[in-house]
């Protein structure tokens, strides 16, 4: 069987397929995130006005540039499915790894649910424009999750090639809108007068509050490293795809803010469901309107698709190490995907997509992501201390260490405060959930873990051990 | 038209779900579970990437 490798001991083992290149890594990272340009980020404008929206865009951009640099260095060395979970396991310890694995599964599953809800909302909008008010969104929400789960089940190459195509179209749609408006295709001129007439409607605290939704521009770019075990050359492809991804997003985010803030009054922009699509409608150009509708739909599907890929890899990796029941750590012998993990996470995504409000789902996703970024700060410091640059080879070495780590920690702290201002109860509930889960893992689950088997990297002993 | 699309969406959802479940059952009954869960994390490192200076 060609999908099976033989080990030195003679036993046959299945493994995930190593078929991806840097473009797929880019498609995974940007695909998950680009939906944030099409929806969600604009609530930052509602929290603090136009200037606050722009500052949130760039401050969050700085936060995620630090995330991308740090992640690129560590993941180019710890090239295993599970991404940050595998990093935590090797660098910090099992309890941290269990928590990081849960952060990943929760963040991506919630984001997948949010995307499915958005597909339903988008089709409801179109049906409303055609005179069919009150569309039943549920079948379309369910279909988007089931179709993408089936695609993921069938193989990673087809899944991420599909993502590459639809993500590229969604990105080109943003550029096309920007260029068209610059060339005068819009019936309504760009208007930035609110910057001077109403610069900070809620004062400086509005800027801090807006940071919460500014994260939405880039949330999920760290998902690139979940593909580590399926790329042909992890040490090269992962940093290349991740850094290209964050550059793409910085460009797309700034263009998005510029076009939407110039075309839509900030009071309306701060509440819009699909800001880029709304901006295209305001231009009065039918071609742009169709293009941005397609871009919104594709960005949403690409994000849900990438989230299924990443959540299943994290769940699979934890199960493979017996942090969760090992039954979920199975690889499909033909498609070479973590098929049981993919199927298991489908009903969980459906429950959140059909039963929870969008803002709650988004907030839980953001909080889980933030916890993961906070972990990255001390993970990076420990990695450099235990294995300095002259001890093991990296595929990428990020510059100015420890400055990006310090900046990331400061920005994470600010973002926690911003989330607390609007969603303090959810923040507390989420922390309680992770504490209870940690107690369960420590007292009930860790005894099943094969302790010697989980540390797989052929690294020298760390400094101090 | 939208009513028909709603029914079509339900039908397609059921189809994709059934395809996955049927294949999962087929694989689980055809192959030994020890083989299916035999994947190990470090095999890429052992074969392709060496972290040595």
TrEMBL record, chain A:
Keyword Transmembrane helix: yes
Main location: membrane
Gene Ontology CC entries for this record: membrane
Keywords: Membrane, Plasmid, Transmembrane, Transmembrane helix
Cell compartments where the protein resides: Membrane
GO biological process terms held by the UniProt record: transmembrane transport
InterPro entries xref list: AA-permease/SLC12A_dom (IPR004841), APC_superfamily (IPR050367)
Membrane topology, record value: Multi-pass membrane protein
Cited PANTHER family: AMINO ACID TRANSPORTER-RELATED, MEMBRANE PROTEIN
Protein name: Uncharacterized protein
Origin species: Sinorhizobium americanum
UniProtKB/TrEMBL annotation, chain B:
Alphabetically ordered keywords of this record: Plasmid
Superkingdom to which the source organism belongs: Bacteria
Protein name: Uncharacterized protein
Naturally occurring in which organism (per UniProt): Sinorhizobium americanum
